[in-house]
Write a structure and sequence with these properties.
alpha+beta, Butyryl-Coa Dehydrogenase, subunit A, domain 1, three-stranded mixed sheet, binds flavin-adenine dinucleotide, Butyryl-CoA Dehydrogenase, subunit A, domain 2, four-stranded antiparallel sheet, globular, 412 residues, 15% strand, Butyryl-CoA Dehydrogenase, subunit A, domain 3
Length: 412
């Protein structure tokens, strides 16, 4: 994309229109359903369908936002939907992680074939899953064990292993699976595969009961002799062979230039978007706390009249705005084709994720006893926020990436 896109903090008229439309859906459809789906701990299919009916859950809409030259389309979308409710919003946007996995590693033909199938259509909505994490390979992606072996005679890949923590895992129409093709090369020997709908051998393992984002389905995915056609290798066999040959050559020469692996390419592209989700949760909790502080009377005056409360609100708002600025900067850099030389994508996810945890905790404190109950939404927002220092790279791993990038030292 163009390197000369100006950095703008004002949304243009089209973006404002989309933001207001998203906000309306978040306020009128998502927010009123949030407590119910949190309790049910189930994928809110009717809400995904409602989003699909108005074009919000569709490849067209996300493609339009993804290719917005200002870079602000996706963060704006995430912030508004997650302001509504994080669990439901994750069910609506979770497919995007798998779609980005295909966009980051696939050929044009693969993008055209598989990404539309991930969304289905408004009368028959589908979701997709991106499966990288494993029981023994979370932060340490190089410990991945799921194997992909090429059966040349049949031009098929055979996948075996167990994936864990997969958002939409097992209920997805299309699964994107990262697997080891050359164990000698660590994370450089990984590749991503499409597992098409109803492929024998893929099954859902346990579904996790979670602390927060409970409307979003998280489960193990078991791959037992799963056979996929050769064209399901993202990027194609020629590109994989060339990449592996380069990696082997560098390994022989003792290291050298870093090669991006398949899972990392997906995470790099999605980190600012995940930061924007955290900004949405933080903003929602801050707004509830601000309203409450204005109306709750103790000692004969609204609690906001006390500096002890008002200053907390000032800090909350400052942190939220700072987080949004980091997210927008990284999103603009990505759209403008700038490389993250100081790990700006990781910075945005780190700061926004920690902000969501801090701000939702402060909001709960400002609501006192009410904040601790399920009568008020900040209790749920606080539980939802906790995931933002864990998934898509923990806060410690973001710090590791930033520290390594800015110092050039292979810090452990
Ligand atoms: C709700 C949910 C949804 C998810 N969705 C997906 C998904 O769709 N697809 C997918 O592939 N994965 C998904 N994940 C997995 C997620 O990305 C991992 O949980 C995350 O990367 C952390 O891995 P881990 O849980 O194994 O923790 P571990 O890697 O075991 O880490 C445990 C602790 O040790 C710390 N730690 C580890 N190594 C270091 C180090 N070198 N330096 C300092 N600290 C360190 C970590 O920061 C953490 O605090 C999801 C997880 C959850 C909980």
């Amino acid at each position: 994309m163009a390197d000369d896109s100006p950095f703008m903090l004002d949304l243009n008229d089209d973006q404002k229109e989309v933001r207001d439309w998203l906000h309306g859906f978040a306020a009128d459809v998502i927010r009123p359903a949030a407590a119910e789906w949190d309790e049910r701990e189930e994928t809110p299919w009717p809400l995904i369908q409602e989003a699909a009916k108005i074009g919000l859950y569709s490849l067209d809409f996300y493609a339009q936002q993804f290719f917005d030259p200002t870079g602000l389309g996706i963060p704006m979308t995430m912030e508004e939907l997650f302001w509504g409710d994080a669990g439901i919003a994750l069910s609506i946007v979770g497919t995007g992680l798998a779609a980005v996995g295909v966009l980051a590693n696939g050929t044009e033909e693969q993008v055209g074939t598989w990404v539309p199938q991930m969304y289905g259509d408004p009368d028959d909505v589908k979701v997709a899953a991106f499966c990288s994490s494993e029981p023994d390979a979370g932060s340490d992606v190089s410990a991945m064990r799921t194997r992909a072996v090429y059966d040349e005679a049949k031009d098929e890949w055979v996948l075996n292993g167990t994936k864990t923590w997969a958002t939409n895992g097992g209920i997805a129409h299309v699964h994107v699976v990262v697997a080891v093709v050359d164990p000698e090369l660590g994370s450089k020997g990984h590749a991503s595969f499409i597992v098409p709908p109803n492929t024998p051998g893929l099954s859902q393992g346990q579904k996790f009961k979670k602390h927060g984002i409970r409307a979003s389905h998280t489960a193990e995915v078991v791959l037992d002799g799963v056979r996929v056609p050769g064209h399901c290798l993202l990027g194609g066999k020629d590109r994989l062979d060339q990449r592996l040959a380069r990696a082997r050559e560098r390994a022989r020469q003792g290291g050298g230039e870093r090669i991006r692996n398949a899972a990392m390419a997906t995470f790099e592209a999605s980190r600012p978007a995940v930061g924007a989700q955290a900004v949405g949760i933080a903003r929602a909790a801050y707004e509830v706390a601000l309203d409450y502080a204005r109306t709750r009377v103790q000692f004969g005056r609204p609690i906001i009249d006390n500096q002890g409360v008002a200053f907390q609100l000032a800090d909350m708002r400052t942190r939220i705005d700072a987080a949004r600025l980091l997210v927008w900067r990284a999103s603009w850099m990505a759209a403008a084709g700038r490389s993250f030389d100081a790990a700006e994508g990781s910075m945005s996810k780190l700061f926004a994720g920690e902000t969501a945890k801090t701000v939702t905790a402060q909001a709960m404190q400002i609501l006192g006893g009410n904040g601790y109950t399920r009568e008020y939404p900040v209790e749920r927002m606080h539980r939802d926020a906790a995931i933002y220092s864990i998934f898509e790279g923990t806060s410690e791993i973001q710090r590791l990436v930033i520290a390594r990038t800015v110092s050039g030292v292979p810090i452990r």
